């Protein structure tokens, strides 16, 4: 039976690779696609995959797209309403949440309520709303399949061990483009330097997050919610070759890991074909070439964002949402060369320090926490610029 999917954020890095997987393995119908504003690419995707619905966050662009694809049967919707329509579309089995940022929270929630399984690629959803999402997943009886390479590796390493206690999760990190650099060397780093990632080709936001190690911090929080472990039992291990995608250590000391070339199409494919493994033409590991794999401790004094993420999740409540909101603003400002690389952690820390955390909260409180964090971070960014 064909698998029907909806892709939120189909024009981004994970979205386009999801469509590559669809082309590669077949047997998957794309019912809906969405974009923030890139209607040129979205139009191409519509003409190739013939979805029932296309949504564009930018309402003006949605109108422009509707005009352009008059000859197609695809319906066009705009704004958050359109995104939610794509997330809840009739007949869809799995929603791939590959939008970037807090904007993914509401549509993911609506998809769960509509009984859809989630191929989760949007980190911010679990970081900010992990507790609410996991409760909803249980309540509505849906499944979450991780798309992120580390969580996919953990997910794969847990198979067959459902009744065994996890001793620790080893979450691997490439270390990003600035691995080994000192604070003095980092002061003058610009967006262009941070965007040169050695192993992975990803969107700009996640590439900067990877340079600050915030990406790993977000992944620690995601892993806590996805696998129900304490963050104290999640250890980040820098592994520059990005071959061991993460591992699980059990009580007896056995470590089960998943290895592969650094290629997101494999975890994306597994999230869509689970529990089956389907043949593809993607690159396979050549161990004679990949003959050295190394591990080291992360430098959390230089790359403070990782510590801030542990601090936020240990604090709990609405704090991770605030950390995440402040990070989004700080990364956006860094990408525009408005602040320096080390300012990113400063802005997040100051925003967190001036926040009164809430422990009894709803989705609306998270939206409000995000708004507050953005406003507070923006003011701190302005102050740095002057
Ligand atoms: Mn990752």
Could you list some keywords that capture this structure?
alpha/beta, globular, 386 residues, binds manganese (II) ion
Summary, kept brief:
By secondary structure, the chain is of the alpha/beta class. It has helices at 13-25, 39-49, 59-68, 79-87, 105-113, 123-140, 149-157, 183-186, 191-194, 204-212, 214-227, 265-273, 305-315, 319-335, 343-353, 363-385, and strands at 3-8, 28-35, 53-56, 75-78, 94-97, 117-120, 144-146, 166-173, 234-238, 244-250, 255-259. It starts with a strand and ends with a helix.
Tell me what you see in this structure:
The protein is of the alpha/beta class and about 375 residues long. It is built from 16 helices and 11 strands. The protein has a 7-stranded parallel beta sheet, sandwiched between helices. Strands 9-8-10-11 form a 4-stranded mixed beta sheet, with helices on one face. Strand 5, helix 5 and strand 6 form a beta-alpha-beta unit. The longest helix has 23 residues. It is globular, with a radius of gyration of 20 Å. It starts with a strand and ends with a helix. About 45% of the residues are buried. Bound molecules: manganese (II) ion. Manganese (II) ion binds next to helix 7.
């Amino acid at each position: 039976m064909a698998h029907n999917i909806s892709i939120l954020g189909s024009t981004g890095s994970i979205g386009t690779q999801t469509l590559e997987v669809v082309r590669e393995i077949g047997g998957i119908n794309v019912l809906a696609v969405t974009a923030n504003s890139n209607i040129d690419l979205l139009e191409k995707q519509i003409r190739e995959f013939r979805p029932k619905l296309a949504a564009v966050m930018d309402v003006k662009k949605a109108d422009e797209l509707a005009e352009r694809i008059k000859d197609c049967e695809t319906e066009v919707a705009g704004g958050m309403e359109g995104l939610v329509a794509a997330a809840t579309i009739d007949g869809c089995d799995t929603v791939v949440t590959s939008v970037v940022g807090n904007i993914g929270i509401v549509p993911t929630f609506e998809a769960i309520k509509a009984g859809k399984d989630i191929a989760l690629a949007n980190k911010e959803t679990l970081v900010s709303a992990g507790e609410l999402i996991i409760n909803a997943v249980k309540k509505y009886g849906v499944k979450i399949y991780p798309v992120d390479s580390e969580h996919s590796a953990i997910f794969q390493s847990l198979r067959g061990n459902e009744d065994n206690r996890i001793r620790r999760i080893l979450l691997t990190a490439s270390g990003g483009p600035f691995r080994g650099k000192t604070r003095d060397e980092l002061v003058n780093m610009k967006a262009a330097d941070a965007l040169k990632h050695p192993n992975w080709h990803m969107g700009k936001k996640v590439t900067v997050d990877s340079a600050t190690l915030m990406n790993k911090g977000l992944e620690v929080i995601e892993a806590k919610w996805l696998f129900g472990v304490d963050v104290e039992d999640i250890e980040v291990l820098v592994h520059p070759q990005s071959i061991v995608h993460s591992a699980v250590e059990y009580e007896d000391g056995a470590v089960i890991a998943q290895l592969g070339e650094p290629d997101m199409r494999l975890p994306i494919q597994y999230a869509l074909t689970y529990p089956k493994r389907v043949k593809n033409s993607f690159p396979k590991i050549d161990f004679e070439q990949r003959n050295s794999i190394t591990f080291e401790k992360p430098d959390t004094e230089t790359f403070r964002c990782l510590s801030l993420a542990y601090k936020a999740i240990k604090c709990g409540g609405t704090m991770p949402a605030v950390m995440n909101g402040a990070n989004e603003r700080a990364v956006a400002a860094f990408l525009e060369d408005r602040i320096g690389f080390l300012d990113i952690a400063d802005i997040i820390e100051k925003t967190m320090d001036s926040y009164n955390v809430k422990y009894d909260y709803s989705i609306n409180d998270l939206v409000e926490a995000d708004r507050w964090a953005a406003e507070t971070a923006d003011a701190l960014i302005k102050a740095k610029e002057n």
